[in-house]
């Protein structure tokens, strides 16, 4: 069994273990950290399989962007997040373990790529046959031979995004909506009004002394 095959099994084991941690962890912070490790291990598998574009896209898009969105959604949920914000030290061990595993996977991947000779790449691979890297071959092919399908897919995704926004922002009875235009045009005079109240009449206490009380615009005397 050669070293790349051993690295493949190691990356796959970490990806499966981290994926199980995502669905079994009751703490959302632990689940997010496990998901980060799952994405990173899967990206290492793609790079090991000579699909560098998929691996880099997985790291940049999912680990760098989607995970931020997940954290934002977790913080927006109607849950008691006070215990999550307190005690940063208790999340530190899990974070250190995830960081150490990711660093070890990076070193292993670098060792595999350094020991791989370009002539050993499969001749069936069109990128290897053209003498180009995987990313360069995908870029040239995508924007030359498959430019029209690429543009059509972009239009479909844009239409889907606009439709999702329209369905979310549609007017429904019993829901509250905000009017950004009215909020921008608001003035302080429309929100705050100063009222001057007249003094209240005298009243008699139990001791027989008369007390005069005043409102917001008057003065009280005894």
From TrEMBL:
Molecular function GO terms recorded: NADH dehydrogenase (ubiquinone) activity; oxidoreductase activity; quinone binding
Pfam families (alphabetical): Oxidored_q3
Membrane topology, as annotated: Multi-pass membrane protein
Main location: membrane
Keywords carried by this UniProt record: Cell membrane, Membrane, NAD, Oxidoreductase, Quinone, Transmembrane, Transmembrane helix
Documented EC number(s): 7.1.1.-
Family matches, as InterPro entries: NADH_UbQ/plastoQ_OxRdtase_su6, Nuo/plastoQ_OxRdtase_6_NuoJ
Cellular compartments per GO CC: plasma membrane
Location in or out of the cell: Cell membrane
Gene3D superfamilies listed in its UniProt record: NADH-ubiquinone/plastoquinone oxidoreductase chain 6, subunit NuoJ
Location of region: Disordered: 198-222
Reaction catalysis annotation: a quinone + NADH + 5 H(+)(in) = a quinol + NAD(+) + 4 H(+)(out)
Membrane-spanning residues: 6-23, 30-49, 55-79, 91-114, 146-169
Function according to Swiss-Prot or TrEMBL: NDH-1 shuttles electrons from NADH, via FMN and iron-sulfur (Fe-S) centers, to quinones in the respiratory chain. Couples the redox reaction to proton translocation (for every two electrons transferred, four hydrogen ions are translocated across the cytoplasmic membrane), and thus conserves the redox energy in a proton gradient.
Self-association and partners: Composed of 13 different subunits. Subunits NuoA, H, J, K, L, M, N constitute the membrane sector of the complex.
Alphabetized NCBIfam families for the sequence: PRK06638.1-4
Family membership noted in the UniProt record: Belongs to the complex I subunit 6 family.
Protein name: NADH-quinone oxidoreductase subunit J
Organism expressing this protein natively: Coralloluteibacterium stylophorae
């Amino acid at each position: 069994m050669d070293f790349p095959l051993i690295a493949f099994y190691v990356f796959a084991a970490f990806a499966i273990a981290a994926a199980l941690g995502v669905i079994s962890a009751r703490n959302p912070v632990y689940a997010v950290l496990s998901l980060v490790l799952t994405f990173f291990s899967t990206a290492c598998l793609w790079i090991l399989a000579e699909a560098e574009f998929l691996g880099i896209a997985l790291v940049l898009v999912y680990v760098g962007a989607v995970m931020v969105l997940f954290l934002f959604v977790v913080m927006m949920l109607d849950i008691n997040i006070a215990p999550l914000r307190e005690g940063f030290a208790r999340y530190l061990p899990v974070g250190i373990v995830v960081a150490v595993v990711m660093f070890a996977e990076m070193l292993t991947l670098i060792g595999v790529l350094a020991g791989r000779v370009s002539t050993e790449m499969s001749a069936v691979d069109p990128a290897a046959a053209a003498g180009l890297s995987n990313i360069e071959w995908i870029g040239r092919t995508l924007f030359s031979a498959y430019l029209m399908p690429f543009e059509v897919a972009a239009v479909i995704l844009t239409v889907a995004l606009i439709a999702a926004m329209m369905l979310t922002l549609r007017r429904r009875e019993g829901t509250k909506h905000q009017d950004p235009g009215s909020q921008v045009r608001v003035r302080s005079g429309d929100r705050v009004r100063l009222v001057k109240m007249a003094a209240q009449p005298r009243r008699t206490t139990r001791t027989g002394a008369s007390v005069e009380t005043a409102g917001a615009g008057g003065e009280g005397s005894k």
